[in-house]
Amino acid sequence: MSKNCVIYRFFDDREEKHYLNSSLDHQKLEELVETYKKENKDKVYAKEFINFLFKYDSEATEVEVRDFYF
């Protein structure tokens, strides 16, 4: 059985909505956001943060969400 991944929704400092697939739990992600902010002058931008996160979670990817109607 593979490890579960969770999809998180977040807004970056451009106020854009993004979805992130990660195997890390919520608390670890919050810790990494704080670490990232310290290194990047309190600004979080989605693409750069996901690249940073990839060092800690090789499964981290941005997810495109689309509507599906049937």
Characterization of this structure:
This protein is an alpha+beta fold and 70 residues long. The chain has one domain (6-63). The protein is built from 2 helices and 3 strands. It has helices at residues 26-39, 46-53, and strands at residues 6-11, 17-22, 61-63. Strands 1-2-3 form a 3-stranded antiparallel sheet, covered by helices on one side. Strand 1 (6-11) and strand 2 form a beta hairpin. The chain is globular, with a radius of gyration of 13 Å. The mean pLDDT is 88.
What fraction of the residues are assigned to beta strands by DSSP?
15-25%
* Rg computed from alpha carbons, rounded to a whole number of angstroms: 13 Å
First CA to last CA: what distance?
30 Å
| Mean pLDDT over the full residue set | 88
What kind of sheet is the major sheet?
Answer: 3 strands, antiparallel
Summarize the structure.
The chain is α+β, with helices and mostly antiparallel strands. Helices cover 31% and strands 21% of the residues. The protein has a 3-stranded antiparallel sheet, covered by helices on one side.
Notable characteristics:
globular, 70 residues, alpha+beta, three-stranded antiparallel beta sheet, 31% helix
SSE arrangement:
Blueprint: E1 6-11, E2 17-22, H1 26-39, H2 46-53, E3 61-63
Antiparallel strand pairs: 1-2, 2-3
